[in-house]
Amino acid sequence: MSLIRRLNRLFILLAFGICLPALAMVSDQTEPTARIATARIKLDDLSMIIVPVSINGSGPYDFMLDTGCGRTMVDQKLAEELHLSRAGEKTITGVLASARMSVVHANSVSVAGAAVDGLDTFSFDHPATVTGKVRGVLGEDFLKNFDVLIDYRHEVIRLESPGGSMAETAIGEHLALELNGTYHGQPSHNRLVVSGHIQELGDKPMALLLDSGANKLTIFQDALGPGASQGAPVNAGSFNKWISLSAETRKVRDLRLGDNSVSNLTVVALSRRADVDTDGLIPTSLFHSIFISHRGRFVILNPSLPKGGR
Questions:
Q1: Are 82 and 56 in contact (CB under 8 A)?
Q2: 6 touches 13 (CB < 8 A)
Q3: N or C, where is the chain less crowded by C-beta within 10 Å?
């Protein structure tokens, strides 16, 4: 796949997937009901995760799993089919633009029996713009109720309610996890932020969002310094508006995350055209698996698990 096509897909996902502080204005009336659940996932050509989601007992439907999105979103047609009650409108903000969306209420959202009751979601048009023919985006407002294992190698996701055993049995370095970003001096919620370092980009640690909806290591700054190359203009889909961008890219030796490192990466610079609450995005697909403990506020990259623990 060409770089231009990959960048187009990247920015399309960013435009929809990075849901920032306006989303925190919707009330959180959620409660997990399942102890543990394991579901098969599908991966598209850019390692975007497709997960089976049931709403109010109907489904399952294909949703994109997006740890970088603070709020779950549902295709408007699906919301109408399921007669989801409307609970007003809110403005959501992405990296490239903002949009006004309807808020709809789901009595239950679940994955393989792991359920959250009373979840307010956003309904939106044209879900195929995000990836494939998905019917929505499953965001952190759902995932935060569980400890989560995303296993790319075996194409499964495991969801465990607080108090389960995965947090105790998963082996690997515990990286501190911040569940809030900072937006206009105020906390933004439903985030998965870790501290990382790229030597070529300076000595200062960066606050980076673990994002299953991104497919390139992305830094929110105008330029990447010596060794960078200017990419050709790309068209970024942004809530039915098209914006021409030119993305700067650069090869870096490694991304350091605690004692972990990922080598020989291409970094994409995305100018801060809209407000963002972190320094950049780390695709979770850089790892063969990732364990996220919301309760313990830590993440393990490429964890080792007991036999049968997947």
A1: yes
A2: no
A3: N
Tokens encoding 235? 């068209």
Nearest to 82 by CA among 65, 63, 105, 102: 105
DSSP code per residue over 61-99: EEEEE-TTBSS-EEEHHHHHHTTPEEEEEEEEE-SS-EE
pTM of structure: 0.84
Q: Which of 303, 268, 271, 296 is nearest to 282 (CA)?
A: 268
Walk along the chain (310 residues) and give the pLDDT tens digit of each residue.
Answer: 444 444 444 444 444 444 544 444 444 555 555 477 999 999 987 788 999 999 999 989 999 999 988 889 999 899 999 999 988 777 766 555 566 788 999 999 999 999 999 999 988 775 444 445 789 999 999 999 999 999 999 999 999 987 778 888 899 999 999 988 777 677 778 889 999 999 888 888 999 999 998 888 888 887 777 777 776 554 443 333 334 456 778 888 999 999 999 999 988 887 755 567 888 899 999 999 999 999 999 999 999 987 655 4
Distance CA 287, CA 23 (A): 28
Report the alpha-carbon distance of residue 299 to residue 177 in Å, rounded.
6
